[in-house]
Design a protein that fits this description.
Layout: H1 2-12, H2 15-24, H3 32-46, H4 53-61, H5 66-89
Helix pairs in contact: 1-2, 3-4, 3-5
């Protein structure tokens, strides 16, 4: 989460917005388009089998075209994929990041 917050901070240059998104994005001061995009991303991340045409329709209603929707699907899916790989094999975090909640896991031994 810290790495993503760091990247977002570089894009929006608004520490309070970044902290609000980290704490509870549903209460952050977001545009309608950002809110529907995050709802889409959370659903795709947490319950991918629950995705329905209505999720895409909601993006379209906020001005997302097919290319933007495709980009969103690919980016969210890629981050889910690569984060699961990193978690599965115990990839070390950068020195400036707080410890992973499961940092005490012992990889490589049974």
């Amino acid at each position: 989460m810290e790495a993503h917050a760091h990247d977002l901070r570089a894009e929006v240059d608004d520490d309070s917005l970044v902290e609000a998104i980290k704490t509870d994005w549903t209460k952050a001061a977001l545009t309608a388009a950002d809110r529907v995009l995050l709802t889409f991303a959370v659903t795709l991340t947490e319950t991918p089998g629950a995705m329905r045409r209505g999720h895409v329709d909601a993006l379209r209603a906020e001005g997302f075209d097919d290319r933007a929707i495709s980009d969103a699907v690919h980016i969210v899916s890629y981050f889910n994929y690569i984060n699961r790989i990193a978690d599965a094999v115990g990839v070390d975090l950068e020195d400036w990041m707080p410890p992973h909640p499961h940092a005490d896991r012992d990889f490589g031994e049974e």
